Each structure stands twice: as C-alpha cells, then as structure tokens.
From TrEMBL:
Cellular component terms (Gene Ontology): mitochondrial small ribosomal subunit
Small ribosomal subunit protein mS35 mitochondrial conserved domain span: 100-223
Keyword annotations: Ribonucleoprotein, Ribosomal protein
Top-rank taxon: Eukaryota
An annotated Gene Ontology molecular function: structural constituent of ribosome
Origin species: Linnemannia hyalina
InterPro entries: Ribosomal_mS35_mit, Ribosomal_mS35_mt
Record-given protein name: 37S ribosomal protein S24, mitochondrial
GO BP of this protein: mitochondrial translation
Taxonomic path: Eukaryota, Fungi, Fungi incertae sedis, Mucoromycota, Mortierellomycotina
Amino acid sequence: MLRSISRTTFSMAVSAQKQTAVRALSASAISNDRARSKAFGAIRSSGNSRDMMDITNLEDFQFDDSSTIGYDRMEAQREVRKYLRITKYELPKLKAFVKPFQAPTNTQILRFRTTTYLGESNHPAGPKVVMTVDTKSLPLTNVELHKFLLLVGSRYNPVNNEIKMSCEKFQDRSQNFKWLSDTLDKLINEAKKEPETVSDVPLDLRHAARSIKPKVRFPKEWNRPVANKTA
C-alpha cells in the first residue's frame, strides 16, 4: 500500500514539473515574439524598412556584377571545362584496364545482347537481355536436337539455324542473364530424356514462312527454241 502511494506521489510530482517547464517555454516564446514585433514596428515607423519582394525597392543596376545570362554562360563553361579535365587526366588511366581481344572458345557458345539508353537509367527496356545460340554448337545428337527444336518452338530460326530467347522479368540485368542460361540448360536436359518418342513429330516452321523463300527457277522446257542458223 505504501509503495503504491509513493509511486502515485512521484508520478504526480513529475507531471507537475513537466507542466511547469512547458509553461515557462511558452512564456519565453511569447515574450520573444513580442520583442521581435516591437523591433520591426520601430523599424517600420522610422521608414528604414524595405520589402525585398517589392520590385520598386530594388536598387538600380550599377553594371558592377554579371547578369543572369552571364552567370548561365559561366556555368556552361565550367561544365565544359569539367569534362575536358576528365578527358585529359582521367581517361588515360583506363589504359591500365585494356585487355587483348580473345576469340570465343568452343565452349563459349552463348551470345548475349543488351541495350543501354543514355540519359535514362531507369528505362523499362534497359534490363532486357537477348540470347542467341547456334544449334550446331549444342552438345546434342540429331535425335536429341530434333526434340530440342520441338521444345523451343517459334524461337528457332531455320534460316540461320539459331535459337533466340529474351528475358525482362527482373529489374536486375544479371538476373535475366542467369534465367536465360538456366532455361537453356533445362531445355538441353529435357531434350536428352527419351528423344526417340518424338522423333516422328515434324517441326512446325509456320512462324518462319516469310523468311523461308523458295528459289523459283524457270523451267528449261519453257525456253524458246533456238533457231538453227546453219540452215
């Protein structure tokens, strides 16, 4: 019982101290505001006050400073000089990262293409990755390759014998790279599972009908007979 009474008394004392502090702060703020208003009133009454937003109170231009257009031109010159300094002092440092060109090996069969839009870091098509691979470079037999082409469907281009796939599911471009590589591995593994079961299924190449143009040759039988000049 005594403990509860002592806790209640202590909490009441703390709340009273808080109220006293708040009242003191509010009183000081009010007094400061009154002092400031009196000071501004004295300045206005003396006639020395000027409204800086009023254009009639602006001083006449004495041609002792640059104009707004001049400052804009100086800012443009600073930006040009900035990139000139980068070109002269920073770009030569890139020579340390130069690597000789190495042709892709037989194991590097994948070709990736990406597009970077200058000035648009958040372009919606920026993360898109396009992958192409030659069907002759795949580690598949003829029967397995036939099943693989059935699986990829319209992604197969019979003109140049390439598979073309794209991915833009993820915001990070590296994730799209990984998804395409993993998907190709899954297709190859699936093509190796009992490929003989679909060996008699023909390929559907209707998507490439416009690209596949048959070579029409004029029949020899339709040629005009050559007149015998010796007769």
